[in-house]
Amino acid sequence: MALAIVVPILGPPAVGKTTLTLHLGADPRRRVFRLREHVPVEDLAATASAADRLGWLHDSIVEAALRGFLERTADLALLDTVLLDNFPGTSEQVRMLVTVLADIAPQCALEPVELELGERARARRAGQRRVCHHCEQDPIADPRMPAARVASRTWSCARCGGLLHPRRGDAPSLFAARTRRHRDATAEIRAAFRCLGHPVTTLDADQEPALLAARVEPMLISRSEAV
């Protein structure tokens, strides 16, 4: 089975990108690309300690990570879909993605999806979001995956029972800076996709994750069945 579709999942902080990719990526025919999981630890650590970089990586590092991931996955048996969690993050990375896909999987469809949610609702989500340092072995001890909580003990992980923590990037100053960066880049990202023939589908993220995933599923299924 050849890679049929790549779906960038875009949107501002705390809009639900990772939660959506977790739902959709549960299907064994799909893989999720998260940039931080595919770059050298020393480069990742450098972005965490530099306030002005906010986790941003040089495009040469990004391209190597993206190309390596797609080369490893494009021809895997039973794989037809790749979901890009919060990627690309700039218009330059949009062009990079299109170029790399043309080299590796020219038959593959590219269908970017952008999630939208009001600022107050996102800030509320960020304030409530928790991560688990035990369940998520992040390479620089900065976990990102939203953890499920025990209903009667909201600071306890439903998976391991350990203590949950706020996500570092959800601290008010960092959250505001990440929101500004997204706002500054998003119009150019949409324009780059549109110019290259891949218009962005916008979805309202103010709904349950399962319902939001159900909105995206038909697009993934129709594309994968067409190959």
Quick recap:
The chain is α/β, with parallel strands linked by helices. The chain contains seven helices and ten strands.
Question: Any descriptors?
Answer:
227 residues; alpha/beta; two-stranded antiparallel ribbon
Structure overview:
By secondary structure, the chain is α/β, with parallel strands linked by helices. The protein contains seven helices and ten strands. Strands 1, 2, 3, 4, 5 and 10 form a six-stranded parallel sheet that branches. The protein is globular and about 50 Å long. It starts with a strand and ends with a helix. The relative contact order is 0.21.
| Count of distinct strands | 10
Estimate what percentage of residues fall within beta strands.
15-25%
Shape: globular
Which secondary-structure class do the elements indicate? Answer: alpha/beta
Query: How much helicity do the residues have?
Result: 40-55%
- Please report the distance between the alpha carbons of the first and last residues: 8 Å
> What is the N-to-C succession of helices and strands?
EHEHHEHEEHEEEEHEH
| Average residue-wise pLDDT | 92
How many separate helices?
A: 7
Please describe the biggest sheet, giving its number of strands, its sense, and whether it closes into a barrel.
6 strands, parallel
Unreliable runs: none
What is Rg? 17 Å
